[in-house]
Amino acid sequence: MKQVIQALSTKLSNDQISTNDTVKELHSKDETYHQTSLPDIVVFPKSTEDVSYIMEVAQKFQTPVTPFGVGTSLEGHVIPYQNGITIDFSLMNQILEIKESDLLVKVQPGVTREQLNKELKKYGLFFTVDPGANATLGGMAATNASGTTTVKYGVMRDLVRDMEVVLADGNVIHTGNLAAKSSSGYHLNGLFIGSEGTLGCFTELTLQVYGIPEHIVAARATFPTLTNAIEAVTSILHAGIPIARVEFVDEASVKQINKFSESDYPVKPTLFLEFHGNASGLQEDLAFSKEIMQDHGCDYFNSETDNAARNHLWDARHNLAYAYIHDYVGKKMMLTDVAVPISELANSVTYAGEELEKLNIPGGILGHVGDGNFHSLIMIDMENEEEVKKAKQFNEKVVRYALERGGTCTGEHGVGVGKKPYQREEHGAALDVMTNIKKALDPNNILNPDKIVDIDNGGNL
Amino acid sequence: MKQVIQALSTKLSNDQISTNDTVKELHSKDETYHQTSLPDIVVFPKSTEDVSYIMEVAQKFQTPVTPFGVGTSLEGHVIPYQNGITIDFSLMNQILEIKESDLLVKVQPGVTREQLNKELKKYGLFFTVDPGANATLGGMAATNASGTTTVKYGVMRDLVRDMEVVLADGNVIHTGNLAAKSSSGYHLNGLFIGSEGTLGCFTELTLQVYGIPEHIVAARATFPTLTNAIEAVTSILHAGIPIARVEFVDEASVKQINKFSESDYPVKPTLFLEFHGNASGLQEDLAFSKEIMQDHGCDYFNSETDNAARNHLWDARHNLAYAYIHDYVGKKMMLTDVAVPISELANSVTYAGEELEKLNIPGGILGHVGDGNFHSLIMIDMENEEEVKKAKQFNEKVVRYALERGGTCTGEHGVGVGKKPYQREEHGAALDVMTNIKKALDPNNILNPDKIVDIDNGGNL
């Protein structure tokens, strides 16, 4: 590693290269139960040129490289299992350009979603994708993140127009253009988004943003059972109501919300909803949705247009994972993340709920049910081997149930190492195509090795 | 070719293999000015197994393979410049499954969009993507086609959930799954869509469909100038009105429409619009849009909810290219297809209009302006060398103007051979990444060679 540091030092300043133990430790983990592993070096590039140079050095010395945003990944994406160089993008955190007239914004990868939205608000704009964590836009693109508004506005792949990417050999490309659609060449934009740092490092992103809707109504609805709530959602979707958000939270999770966010929501299977539109259309959508939910046994319904009340509701939802973490000190979080076709959603959530109950490990079910995507969140004691084993078996059961019904093992968190065991089952022979693409673009397997696909070059995971 | 035919004959019946001159001639061209070229053999597979076998034979004998839907491509995609085998998918035209509860439909690649919509109508559903031609779904996926409803519902890449694809070596993969979103593995779905037959042959597609909106209003608005009309569109987009369709047609094209479709629309720069939504929201959107258009000089506005009148309007728009072809017998059609960021749209269309006027070749401007995408359509006399040269220069000017402003050379028609000369200019070093992907997935370059990327193995174009 001495040689690598020496080579890096010829272009990077000393404060951009760290081998400090605390710094390394901070880059050895994500927010979940995955085993930690230290990088040898953490570098802090300030420009595309820096990243390009780092990749040249890494290529020369065949050093593994792991890109790092703020470490909020949930499947071990940022953990450097082969050590080497971790590239921390925190110094590349500038909002480079806000093109109001095109509803586009250009950012560096280290910008976080909250940082971006704070700035966009001044222009009456917002960026829609909102994972629970205050993740970086680079990390969100790397995992094809989504969130509560995806049911209306789409996932990262729908909203990134163009990226600047540094390839394994240090070359710099653009993956797209600034037009709203294109049929020119292979869809590199879509390929790099969700590639989890295994095909290149993102150094600039141009994102599509929206005007903040003039009229917004949020609502909460509770149901006697989890199944009732989910069936109400599928009916709303079938009715073609253009709902902007529809989130499910089970009883255990409502309890956590109340505790952490000082709310007093009724402890019942609950839907959090939101509607965007013009004043009269929105009222009609709201009334129709309410009617549908009542048909499915909704026993409490409350809507609010007040800004502060709405924000409190969504903050509470976004902080849900932290509410669990906060309440179970010393335990580690594991999340399932399956997405299934709508028609399978009620049964899938019911199945996961039943299995979770059998587990006898603290946790709950929540999710972006408008997309057929839900999470079982469990807090496990990593010292308790039996519990870890049971938790992993539960994860596997939920995944298998989804795959057997045409679903996916991960709706939004990505593969990392946690969902890698299911890649062959989900993708079949297509996994070989993915492996061939990885080999073509990163022949020496130095870009975030061990993630998504396994390359037979002596990976030591 | 004798050996190839012999090999094919061991699995395919005689009526599935043709070397008939008329059949070959039908597969030597598309709907435009591109030079024709005959295949040696045309095959008509009936199943995935047939296609897989054809690819095995092609691989064994290193025979180029060109997939063919109904030949409505606009950039020479289906023309076999290296001869070899053309795979005609017309016998694979079954609608395999309509999953109403999931708003999904599974089709074979030879199903056309009109065939599909006729069937879906029985279920109150529709497939949104509507290029002018009655193209096959396979062809539409191959070019990442879009159309008049894209501004609301998206392009093919947004609406294909999964595909079965036969690879260059005959292996069969699935590119996606049935869930509404996924972060699992590389985005093969997006990569294969728009790959124009250069990475694999599509043998099954699962498409997302929508319920036919209960309330639809169509409208026509005319403006004193082309620039007024386009500026009105950008204002509507900035206002965040969820418009379902907004099409621009210039004076020359309105004339063609009136002649071909027996309408009497005022001969002025015109917008054709459509709104989908609930009854009250839609009226508010319509009124707001009308107000915006009047601010931009709209001098005639007419809306209709009547089904027949609406259908006539959109049929007229869809038949516009044929209206030109019909009126200029013996001439060949050339289309520009740029898309630009919204802020550049008015200037781009104005520029194209001015250049078109200088040309003195019959043609007009039309387009899906809600996506920043427009076409200059010109009818050229291929015997007139000077005219052909001028037309090509015009195409180049319009493309360059768009590329210099962050746009794309093709918004929806694809690259084929016609937009290949602009690939380096548009994609820069990213074109090398595309070439590497092509080499990794089709190492012998037998899949639709000469399209999108050039591979140095003696292509003879």
TrEMBL record, chains A, B:
RNA-binding recorded as keyword: no
Enzyme Commission number(s) from the entry: 1.1.2.4
EC class (word): oxidoreductase
Obligatory cofactor(s): FAD
One Pfam family per UniProt: FAD_binding_4
Keyword entries, A-Z: FAD, Flavoprotein, Oxidoreductase, Transit peptide
Every FAD-binding PCMH-type domain range: 35-212
Keyword Oxidoreductase applies: yes
Transmembrane spans: none
Assigned protein family: Belongs to the FAD-binding oxidoreductase/transferase type 4 family.
Name used for this protein in its record: D-lactate dehydrogenase (cytochrome)
